[in-house]
C-alpha cells in the first residue's frame, strides 16, 4: 500500500524508486496526468522536479513501456503540459484516479 504523508505520495515514490529506478517513469506520468489533466497534485514540486532531473540524467538507461511519451525537452522544462488526456495510457489514468481518490479520502478524515 502506498503511504500518503501530508497529502502527497512523496514517500511512496522514494520507496518505489529504491526498489526499481524505472518506476520514476510511471510516477512522473501519473503526477503529470494528475496535475495537468485533473488539476490535482500527487507529489510535492520538489519531488516532481528531482524526478524530472533524474529521468533526464538517466534517460538512456531507464526502461519503461511508456518512456516514449516523455521527451528530453519536456524533462528540461520540467513539465508535461503538452501531453493531452488522450496521450496518456489507460493504466496511467486508472492508477492516477485511484491515487487522487485516496488523497481526497485522506483530506476528509
Map the helices and strands.
Blueprint: H1 10-19, H2 23-37, H3 45-57, H4 72-77, H5 90-107
Summarize the structure.
The chain has five helices and no strands. The chain has 109 residues and is mainly α.
Structure notes:
By secondary structure, the protein is mostly helical. It has one domain. 57% of the residues lie in helices and 0% in strands.
Q: Helices and strands, in N-to-C order?
A: HHHHH
Radius of gyration: 13 Å
For the sheet with most strands, the description reads: none
Shape: globular
> Any low-confidence stretches, pLDDT <50, length ≥5?
none
Structural class, by secondary structure, is mainly alpha
Mean pLDDT: 93
Our measurement of the CA-to-CA distance between the termini, rounded to an integer number of angstroms, reads 18 Å
Number of strands: 0
Query: Which percent band covers the strand fraction?
Result: under 5%
Domain count: 1
- Please bin the fraction of helical residues: 55-70%
The DSSP helix count reads 5
Q: From the structure provided, what is the oligomeric state, counting identical versus distinct chains?
A: single chain
Characteristic terms for this protein:
mainly alpha, 109 residues, 5 helices
